Amino acid sequence: MPKSLEKVGDISHYFTKISVAIVEITAAMRIGDSISIKGMTTNFEQSVESMQIEGEDIEEAKAGDSIGMKVVDRVRKGDVVYRLVD
Questions:
Q1: For the segment 21-70, what is each residue's pLDDT rounded down to a tens digit?
Q2: Would you list the domain boundaries of the chain?
Q3: Strand partners, 35
Q4: How far apart are CA 15 and CA 68, in angstroms?
Q5: Up-side HSE of residue 50: CA atoms within 13 Å toward CB?
Q6: Residues 68, 74 contacting (CB under 8 angstroms)
Q7: Can you name the CATH fold of 4-85?
C-alpha cells in the first residue's frame, strides 16, 4: 500500500552553497521522519537528518517554527514539504 502524504511545511528560502532550506512549519516534524518535497520542478524524498532554529540543533519542530534543514537536492520558494505516513 502506498504511503500517504501529510503536509508539514512550506519552503521560504534556499541557500544553494550549503544546501539548506528554510521551512515554515505547519505541523510537527521530527528528526528521522521521511519527507517528500514537491513543487513545479521539485520532487524528491529524503530523511530528516538535521534541523536548526537560529543555529541551535533541535529534535522536533512544531507548527509556527521557521527551521533550517539540510536537503539532498535543490528546492525552491513555494515548494511544499510532506511527511510520508504509513
A1: 999 999 999 999 999 999 999 999 999 999 999 999 999 999 999 999 99
A2: 4-85
A3: 46, 83
A4: 10
A5: 11
A6: no
A7: Elongation Factor Tu (Ef-tu); domain 3 (2.40.30)
